[in-house]
Structures are given as C-alpha cells and as structure tokens.
Write a structure and sequence with these properties.
Largest sheet: 6 strands, mixed
Number of strands: 12
Strand order of the largest sheet: 8-9-10-5-11-12
Order of helices and strands: HHEEHHHHHHHHEEEHEEHEHHHHEHEHEE
CATH architecture of the largest domain: Up-down Bundle
Radius of gyration: 36 Å
Structural class: alpha/beta
CATH topology of the largest domain: ABC transporter transmembrane region fold
Shape: elongated
CATH class of the largest domain: Mainly Alpha
Number of domains: 2
CATH superfamily of the largest domain: ABC transporter type 1, transmembrane domain
Distance between the termini: 60 Å
Strand content: 5-15%
C-alpha cells in the first residue's frame, strides 16, 4: 500500500507524508511518557521510598533529598505538564494531518476533473459518466481515508510494541501469554477474514457506479419513467444493488466490532490472571499494587491500540480499490500528456486554403474505435464565409458525426479540417472561440435564464446590450416579459419548467450572446412552430450577413433558406 501511495503522491507530498510519520512517532513518545508516569505516581502515593530507592538519582537530581510530600507534588505537576504538552501536540498534529489530506484531495480532484474535461469528446463517448463521477468523488475520499488510517496504523503498532516491551520488563510470563493469544487472533484475521475484504471492497466500488448511474438516469428520464409506469421497476432495480452494497457494509461493520469485544474480554482475563500469578509469586501487596497498576494502564492503552490497528487494516483494505483506481487514472493522465506533447512536436503539412473558404474539409473519413464500419467516407467540402449551408440526409447517414468533426469534437481517421489557412486541430481553442453550437437537445443549468444564456460559471459581469440583442434575435423577449422574475427566473433541473421550443431558443440566445463567426445548428429549430422558426431564420439572415451558418435540417422551410445544400447518404456526399 505504501508503494501505491508513493506513486500517487508527488515527491514533495510524499516527503511531507514522511515528516508526518516522524511527528506521529514524537506524538507516541509523549504518550508513552504519560503512560509510564501514572504507575510511578501511584507508587509514590503508596510508598514513595520504594520508588526513590529504585530510581535514586536521575542526572543531577537526588530524589532522596526531597521530601515525599514535595516529590508527589512535583511529580503531579510533571504529569499534568506532560499530558497538556501531549494533547496540544496531538491537536496540532491532527490539524496538520487534516490540512495535508485536504490539499492532497484538492490536487487529485482538480487533476482528475481537468483531465476529464480536457479529454477529447471521443473519450466521453467510450466512458461511463457514472464511473468518472465516482472517481472524482468517492475514490478521492478513499485516498484520504487510506492515508489517515495508514498514519494511525503506524502509531498504534508502535504503541502495541512498546506496551509489550514494558510488560515483558515487568512480568515475562504474562507477556508471553498475551503475545500467544494475540498471535492466534492475528493469524485468524490474516488467513480467514482479510482475504474476503478485498473481494467485497471491489464489489462496493462497482456498486457505487451503479448507484450514481441509476440515480442520474432516473432523474434525467423522469418524464418517460412516469409515462411508461416504470417507477416501481426503477425502485426495485435500485433496491437490488443497494441491498447488496448494504449487505457488504453490514459484513464490514460486524467484523469491525468483534475485535473490541474480544479485547475487552481478554483484558479482564489477563488482569485477573496477572493478579493471581503475581500473588502466588510475591505476597508483597505494595509491590503487587504497583505492578498491577502498570499492567492495567498498559492494557488500557493496549486495547484501543490493537483495536485501532484492526480498524485501520479494515479501512485500508476497504478503500484499497479506490487507491488503485486513482493510480490508474493518474497513469492515464501521464499518458495523455505524453501523447499531447508528441502531437505538438509533430509537424503537420501546411496546406494553403482560399481565404473565402472559412471551412474546408479534405478527404475526411471516420469510424469509431470499436467499429469497423466507416461513418464518413472521403468527404470533401468547402464552405464560404457569410453563407448558409444546409446538411440533409436520412437517419444514420453521418450528419451528426460530420458536425462533430467540424466542431473539433471528433478527430477524423484520415483527412483535415481547415479554417481559412489553418488546420483546426493545430489550435482548437482558437477555432472554438470562433464558433457557436446550437444543439437539438440543449442541457440547461438549474439556474436563471440569464445565467443559462451567458453560460457563466464565475459570476462575471453580464453585457446587457448583448443579452438584450440575443433575446430579441431568438424571439424570447415576449416570453421573458411575461415571467414574474424575467431573466432571473430559474428554469429548474435541465429546464424542466420550460417547453422544448423555449429551451431551443435559450440555446440559440446562448450562441448569439457569444457572438461567433460561425453558427452550427443541429436540428435546433425542430421544436419550434413554423412561424417562430421563420422569424428566427429571418433575424439571422438580416442581422448576421457576415456570419456563416451551417445547419442540419429536415424541414423544407429550413432548407429553402440555405444558399447551399449538402445531402449525405451512407457516409458520402450525394
């Protein structure tokens, strides 16, 4: 597990983790002093002479010259001081560890989200969003649990070892007996219980993906679920996986409680037997009381220490799959960076294009990685600035794929897409700054109409003139004027409070607000009535003469407004 963590953490963070290990050692050392001081204090109260004779001089101090009363007072102050120092140090260490784990979680979650967001569109086609959600949430939490429990495991293992050393010094027979009992328990844990942890922990990770996916799909398709009377089926489907997940957790919870119960029983047994053994070997009650107080204190520390070891091992095993998931994702990020650098170093041919062709496609062919079928076959196409180009074709002819390639969401298997003289993949950010996309099914934020149009996540200042113009061009002005809160009206989750046509007009307003050079419209007026559609098309033609519009359409009225029509059939231009 340490090797896995070292691969996940950066060099500086792993060094900080090693410092935390050292601080935990100091924390334990302070705790050890506090444990040992209690039996000595008890011995001073019962018979100070025995303690003075045993320790005599300590450095330059001569305890025999100090009266018993003052010695008890001074040692009492020492105990108070050491406990105060220990607890302040422990609190500070807890604070430092919390900050360390927080910074690790922030870095990892940012790296993962950045990777997922920056990954090509094809990556998202091939990966389940529920899995990506789990990776950036639950799996990150798993890393923090493993780090904290690892530190706890180190400290408590030290505690157990030192307690054994102390007991061995006081009474070897008792120590051997305790060591035998706990060796048997440890053996049973490693051989019988621990192997089952791994399998159940991995199952839990897959169950989490199923939960997230089921919930996302349920609320995303709630309308269809209700119309098709599938509410009970969804609940039953969810309950099935939830039951298995909870059964696993129940298994872990029960096993986690068992060690504590065993330890308490064993502790009483050890204390009772210790008393009998010491009495049989030595009738001195004062000696018995001092030794017994040490054994009681040692066992009182040993029980939570051993229980913490079992708990830490339990959580480390439970969240070990999370560590492996994150490590696997970080390896993907490194590979992605190397591939990106390789692409940057690759010199692409500089094909010069005529400046009036704002978009040029040369010999474009495309097929998905998991399919041998070619969606597009040797497409050649030129689109001039300021024109309206319509793309038509039957379902499955490749219209949306061609759109995605022109948008730069998909990279062609062969061929190039040019914006004027530049291949769009040489500088995708620049190309996307020039384009606007109006999808048939837009995703709306659960926020105001204004924020959905500006699509602003950072609450930057709204350009009121551009906002008003966008609303007018998309024929939303009348609708917004009728709403009690106007632009500040919240649309609900994915625009549930709006009609399909209103959502499409918000999508159009969002694109106009961006003020792009090229509009890509993917069946973006399909939910509108013909009158509203014609009005919007007229607005675009009259007010955007210098803009280029590329649209997918089936309606005859939409196609008639185009300067050029491209008909696709079986991946070819017909």
């Amino acid at each position: 597990m340490i090797s896995l963590i070292s691969k996940i953490l950066k060099k500086k963070d792993f060094l900080n983790l090693q410092i935390l290990v050292a601080l935990n050692f100091i924390s334990f050392f302070l705790e050890l002093i506090s444990i040992i001081s209690i039996p000595i204090f008890v011995g001073l109260i019962i018979d100070a002479d025995v303690i003075i004779n045993k320790f005599g001089n300590f450095g330059n101090l001569n305890f025999s010259q100090i009266s018993n009363e003052y010695l008890i007072k001074y040692f009492g102050l020492f105990i108070i001081s050491i406990f105060v120092i220990k607890n302040i140090f422990y609190y500070s260490l807890t604070y430092i560890q919390g900050n360390f784990v927080k910074s690790i979680k922030l870095k990892l979650s940012k790296d993962l989200l950045n990777f997922y967001v920056m990954s090509p569109f094809s990556y998202h086609i091939q990966n389940n969003p529920a899995t990506l959600t789990r990776n950036t949430t639950d799996s990150i939490e798993g890393i923090s649990v493993v780090i904290l429990q690892g530190l706890e495991l180190f400290k408590e293992t030290l505690a157990v070892l030192v307690v054994f050393i102390i007991l061995a010094f006081v009474n070897p027979i008792i120590t051997i007996s305790i060591a035998t009992i706990f060796s048997i328990l440890a053996f049973l844990y490693l051989k019988k219980i621990r192997p089952s942890y791994k399998k159940k922990a991995e199952l839990n990770e897959s169950f989490k993906v199923n939960f997230i996916q089921t919930i996302n799909e349920t609320f995303g398709a709630i309308k269809d679920i209700k119309i098709l009377n599938k509410e009970k089926d969804i609940v039953e489907y969810y309950e099935k996986y939830r039951n298995e997940f909870e059964q696993n957790l129940f298994y872990f919870t029960i096993l986690q409680k068992v060690p504590k119960l065993l330890l308490e029983t064993i502790a009483i047994l050890v204390i009772t037997l210790s008393t009998v053994i010491i009495l049989s070997l030595n009738n001195d009650i004062l000696t018995l009381f001092s030794i017994l107080s040490l054994i009681v204190v040692a066992i009182a520390r040993f029980i939570p220490a051993f229980n913490s070891i079992i708990t830490s091992l339990f959580y480390i095993r439970l969240f070990q799959p999370s560590v492996r998931i994150i490590l696997n994702e970080l390896n993907k990020i490194e590979k992605f960076k190397k591939d990106s650098l390789r692409e940057l170093k690759y010199e692409k041919p500089k094909n010069k294009k005529a400046k009036n062709n704002i978009i040029s496609l040369e010999n474009i062919s495309f097929s998905y990685n998991d399919s041998k079928k070619e969606i597009l076959k040797n497409i050649n196409l030129s689109i001039e600035k300021g024109t309206i180009v319509g793309i038509t074709g039957e379902t499955g002819s490749g219209k949306s794929t061609l759109f995605h390639i022109m948008l730069g969401l998909l990279k062609p298997k062969t061929g190039n897409v040019f914006n004027l003289e530049q291949n769009i993949h040489d500088d995708l950010a620049n190309w996307r700054n020039q384009i606007g996309y109006i999808a048939q099914n837009i995703y709306l934020l659960d926020n105001t109409i204004e924020q959905n149009i500006s699509f602003d996540f950072l609450n930057q200042k709204i350009d009121k003139k551009r906002m008003d113009f966008s609303i007018k061009m998309s024929c939303l002005d009348q609708k917004i004027s009728e709403l009690p809160f106007g632009l500040k009206t919240k649309v609900g989750n994915d625009g549930v409070r709006l009609s399909g046509g209103e959502k499409q007009r918000i999508a159009l307003a969002r694109s106009i607000y961006k003020n792009p050079k090229v509009f890509f419209m993917d069946e973006s007026t399909s939910a509108l009535d013909s009158v509203t559609e014609q009005k919007i098309i007229k607005n675009l033609k009259d007010n955007f003469t210098d803009k280029t519009i590329v649209l997918i359409a089936h309606r005859k009225t939409t196609v008639e407004a185009c300067d050029k029509i491209i008909n696709l059939k079986n991946g070819n231009i017909n």
